[in-house]
Amino acid sequence: MLQSLVHCCAGLDVHRSLVVVTLLRSRPDERIEKKVREFSAFRGSLQEMARWLRLEGVELAVMESTGIYWKAVFEALEDEEIEAMVVNARHVKNVPGRKTDVMDSEWLAELARCGLLRPSFIPPRDIRELRLLTRYRSKLSGILSGEKNRLHKVLDDCGIRLGAVVSDIDGVSAREMVRALLDGYTPKEIANLARGRLRKKVKDLELSLEGRISDRHRLLLQTISSHIQGLQDEIQAIDCLVFTAMEPYQNEWQLLQTIPGMDQTSAAMLLVEIGVDMSRFGSRDRLSSWAGMCPGNNESAGKRKTGRSRKGNRYVRAILCEAANAARKTDSQFKGLYQGLVIRRGHKRAIIAVGHRILEIVYLLLSRKEPYRDPSVDYEALMVKRNAPRWIEALRKYGYIDQHIHEIAL
User: Fold this and answer.
1) Rounded to whole angstroms, how far apart are CA atoms 53 and 58?
2) Domain tally for the chain?
3) Looking at the domain assignment, is residue 1 inside a domain?
4) Mean pLDDT in the chain?
5) H or E stretch including 14?
6) Residue 257: inside a domain, yes or no?
7) Contacts (Cβ under 8 Å, ≥6 apart) of 392
8) Burial (Cβ within 10 Å: 0-12, 13-18, ≥19) of residue 73
9) Is 67 in the same domain as 110?
10) Same domain, yes or no, for 187 and 290?
11) What is the pLDDT confidence band of residue 370, given thresholds at 50, 70 and 90?
12) pLDDT score of 1
């Protein structure tokens, strides 16, 4: 018989409109007292459930991470200061025992009473609310990318090959050209709108802009362009809100921005996903495993079957891959790591490896509260190079250089 580690605990089977609660309490005569109640998923009923659990002296409440339905239940328990644990359904199913719809809540309570469950990472309420903004921003970014591709397609359908000459169809020059195209300017007039390095490609631009735009093409291009502008405005507004909300985490936010490839947006989004308290994970290996950025572990009879990464936080994975793509182009350790792996492992696996290294560094920076220092960079030489003119001028001003030269001459 398994030993009881929690005197009084509750298992919650959470559904969209119903929460089944099973309370288990250990008696002095080693008997287990069981109470089962059902509550609706409305806020008032959830508050009643939390008050009942507090009055019953529940030490721990456990529920599965079922979609997003657990969030309202978790917050109700949090308001009553009841320790709540959200567990991965896969971990519950892997423990042998009864697993049916009727026995869900009792089985969760029994496993929790014996200490057989591992809690999932649940950040503080402020971070959870910020996640709503950052994850919505990710959705808008995906829609924006799709609209840009659609704009490119419509231009190609008109016979306009602007994308073959311009590297970024959403660049400043390209957007001005598309607007001028919709306003009815000639290809020569539009090509002269090129800026910077595109000035060298004026002839190619003029040739690429020769196409046939029908009224329907024009209407579609105008609609897509206005949609792109609206999405960009919405993303910018969300960025302003997120940056303002970073005030309590200013030190950690600045630390992440010292890593090559991490800008203000990616640092804020990553911080919102993993939080600022690295003790919740325990080690950088556990953080990497939780995020799904490390190689898989599947070995049997001395044979390594697969190194496929496990499923993890897809938002963290996307942020790290984007940062890795930027970091591989910098003069840092990430550039060497990418170049060493891409030849034999390919671009995608190399990017995952670079993202894995970045996440490990993020763990160390947030744990030690120190900025990033690249091992391949001689920071002392950089400091001397930056400050040497000022130092020499000061030495010359106070006569140390001339006096030193005089002493050498003697």
Assistant:
1) 6
2) 4
3) no
4) 87
5) strand 8-14
6) yes
7) 401
8) buried
9) yes
10) no
11) very high
12) 52
Is residue 213 domain-shared with residue 272, that is, in the same domain? no
Element (H, E) at 161: none
So what's the pLDDT on residue 95? 54
Measured CA to CA, the distance from residue 228 to residue 220 in angstroms comes to 12
Residues 108 and 50 grouped into a single domain: yes
Q: Which of 33-37, 57-61, 72-76, 167-171 has the lowest mean pLDDT?
A: 167-171
Angle at the Cα of 5 from the Cα atoms of 50 and 118, rounded to 5 degrees: 70
Compute CA 318 distance to the chain's CA centroid, rounded to the nearest angstrom. Answer: 6
Contact 151, 221 (CB under 8 A): yes
**Is residue 3 situated within a structural domain?**
no
CB 105 within 8 A of CB 253: no
Distance from C-alpha of 191 to C-alpha of 298, rounded to nearest angstrom: 57
One domain for residues 221 and 305: no
Q: Does 260 share its domain with 182?
A: no
Range of the domain at 354: 248-368
Residues 320 and 405 in one domain: no
How many whole angstroms separate alpha carbon 315 and alpha carbon 291?
9
Q: What are 82's two structure tokens?
A: 């009841």
Give me the pLDDT at residue 298, please: 65
Burial of 119 (0-12, 13-18, 19+ CB in 10 A): middle
Three-state secondary structure call for residue 225 = helix
Residue 272 in domain: yes
* Confidence check: pLDDT of 260 > 90: yes
Whose CA is closest to 360, among 324, 329, 336? Answer: 324
